[in-house]
Amino acid sequence: MKVIPVGIWGGYPKANEATSSFLIEHEGFHCLVDCGSGVLASLQNFLPLEKIDAVVISHYHADHIADLGSLQYSRLIQYYLNNPSPVLPIYGHDQDDDNFEKLSYKGRTIGIEIYENNTTQIGPFTVTFCRTDHPVYCLAMKFTVGDRSVVLTADTEWRDELVDFSKGADLLISEANLYEEHIGVAPGHMGGSEAGKLAQLAGVKRLLLTHLPLHGNIKEILDAAVSNFDGDAEIAEVGKLYTA
Ligand code: ZN
Questions:
Q1: SS3 call for 98
Q2: pLDDT tens string for the chain (244 positions)?
Q3: pTM here?
Q4: 61 CA to middle of ligand 1, Å?
Q5: What is the whole-number distance in angstroms between the Cα of residue 107 and the centre of ligand 1?
Q6: From the CB of residue 178, how many other CB atoms can be counted at a distance below 10 Å?
């Protein structure tokens, strides 16, 4: 599997950047994970929009869905220009009826339900989902091809279940939205030390940090992660190709 970070920020993006989103590719099939603010602008540096084969949405906070409407417009406009792409499947949970219904749009995109503790085949990927601990219903996801796996925590506080869920992953893409002094104070997110602890307990090979705050020095978050994890850890770098 190939993974390219599209954006790494939580809440809202830096100038000319995007909120947390990742492109996962295998055998020419391109799956976009989350589609928040700035994602379409960033993504086109790496892939024409019509080449997206599937989208998976972890939850319906704006920094994970803000650009979905524009992605749907791109499909509709190309259809009107007699340049249609296949109907785009957008996978998301149905615990929020209004937002789930919006995944389907004018026959150009279709919403498909995903469920915690369940497995869905998306192109070449076997994808499993795990409930996270966040103010709204949110799903972490594990992409597996053969004996390789990539886990994305999505947005979450520390949650023991994520250790088993992430066991042995080749790549763990963990949120690390908090500086150490904010752990337990700001609900729904983890700090770098917790991302590192998760990586260590799950025995993953490599840790990428994402969903980062725009304030402060994010190197401190990486340092906190490294202090708990013996493997490779880095801040996810937009546009860099990671393999798993
Ligand atoms: Zn969120």
A1: helix
A2: 999 999 999 999 999 999 999 999 999 999 999 999 999 999 999 999 999 999 999 999 999 999 999 999 999 999 999 999 999 999 999 999 999 999 999 999 999 999 999 999 999 999 999 999 999 999 999 999 999 999 999 999 999 999 999 999 999 999 999 999 999 898 899 999 999 999 999 999 999 999 999 999 999 999 999 999 999 999 999 999 999 9
A3: 0.97
A4: 5
A5: 28
A6: 26
Q: How many CB atoms lie within 10 A of CB 101?
A: 11
User: Could you write out the DSSP letters of every residue in 67-89?
Assistant: THHHHHHHHHHHHHTT-PPPPEE
173 CB neighbour count, 10 Å cutoff: 32
46: left (phi over 0), alpha (psi -120 to 50) or beta: alpha
Which CATH superfamily, name and number, covers 2-243?
Ribonuclease Z/Hydroxyacylglutathione hydrolase-like (3.60.15.10)
Buried b (16+ CB within 10 A) or exposed e, 106-128: eebbebbebebeeebebbbbebb
Q: How far is the CA of 124 from the centre of ligand 1 (A)?
A: 27
Q: Calculate how far, in angstroms, residue 79's C-alpha sits from the geometric centre of ligand 1.
A: 32
What residue ranges do the domains of the chain occupy? 2-243
Terminal-residue alpha carbon distance, the chain: 5
